[in-house]
Amino acid sequence: MKTLRIFLIGIIILFFCGTNAFAFRCGTGLVSSGDTKARVKIICGQPT
After folding, report:
1. Which of 15, 18, 23 is nearest to 44 (CA)?
2. Burial class (CB within 10 angstroms; exposed 0-12, middle 13-18, buried 19+) of 21
3. Closest to 20 measured CA to CA, from 11, 9, 33, 8
4. Whole-structure pTM over 0.85, yes or no?
5. Whether the Cβ atoms of residue 29 and residue 44 lie closer than 8 Å to each other
6. DSSP type of residue 46
7. The pLDDT of residue 6
8. Domain-wise residue ranges, the chain
């Protein structure tokens, strides 16, 4: 029973751990962290 409790607590902790994204896909293009607003606008287009 104690092992199950530890396992469930571990799963809950992993569930709430976020990952950092250094890039994201916009259509077929890839926007990276550090790209200028102009470059993002070129790749993604106008926001709707």
Report:
1. 23
2. exposed
3. 33
4. no
5. yes
6. S
7. 95
8. 21-48
State the pLDDT at residue 5.
95
Structure tokens at 17: 């751990």
In three-state form (DSSP H/G/I as H, E/B as E, the rest C), the secondary structure along 13-24 is HHHHCCCCCCEE
Per-residue pLDDT of the chain (48 residues; tens, 9 = 90+): 899 999 999 999 888 887 777 888 888 889 998 999 999 999 998 887
* Token reading at 32: 């990276």
- CA torsion 22-26-29-34 (nearest 10°) is -30
